[in-house]
Amino acid sequence: MTKTNLKTLAYTAIRHKIITCEYAPGTFLNEERLTEELRLSRTPVRDALSRLEQEGLIEIRPKRGIMVTPLSVNDINMIFEMRTLYEPYILLHYGALLPEKRLIELNDIFLHTKPDSEYFQNNDYFYELDSEFHLMVVNACPNTYIRHSYSLIWAQNQRFRNLTGNVSASRLTATFQEHLDITGPCLRKNWKEAADKMAYHLEQSKKSSFDYVLNSPDPPHIQL
Predict the structure, then answer these.
(1) Which has the closest alpha carbon to 102: 127, 134, 124, 126?
(2) pTM of the model
(3) Pairwise CA distance, residues 205 & 142, whole Å
(4) Which end of the chain is more exposed for a tag (fewer CB within 10 A), N or C?
(5) What distance in Å separates the CA atoms of residue 91 and residue 191, rounded to the nearest whole number?
(6) Which residues are CB-neighbours of 64 under 8 A, at least 6 positions away?
(7) For residue 97, what is the DSSP state?
(8) What angle do CA 178, 153, 224 make, to 5 degrees?
(9) Mean per-residue pLDDT of the chain
(10) 98, exposed or middle or buried, with CB in 10 Å at 0-12, 13-18, 19+?
């Protein structure tokens, strides 16, 4: 493999383990152990670590080592603050660029989902569907700077989601309805209403996240 491919391989592998929380927030990583685990030389691993530090996923601390960046209540607040700035804005200004065929398909899924369906029994599938919906909105934006900035907070958002685990049945039901409340105006080309509904959905998601962290007896790896 070329040096570029080895760097990409190291970056992708370590980033995946961080986002899925196999490397949990606050964990210290060892460069030598990473090279052994990935069966790579130090050069691509160091390059990967440098990129991950720039993305805010790790902190390289002199004389202490490489730490996976912790997640805190303040981080959750900042993530939702940024999402609320971006996602409604994109719908309002670039909603016409959404892929209409997939939008219709997602609207149909949200419309006909029942509490005893596979979506309510399989949280992984629900998360994939939810991620696809929100990324579809963001990827419709032609502003590359917005998309790049969003990708940084999305990685942190995925870490938080993987830490908190299963979503409650009541919140899942509400989320499907909130998604439907967004897709409906999109299909009618009412971008102002769609943006307002997206802002409401993100506010409810934020409240649910804080409720989990603050009321859970042992929220994993989340700093209060």
Answers:
(1) 134
(2) 0.83
(3) 26
(4) C
(5) 6
(6) 28
(7) G
(8) 85
(9) 88
(10) buried
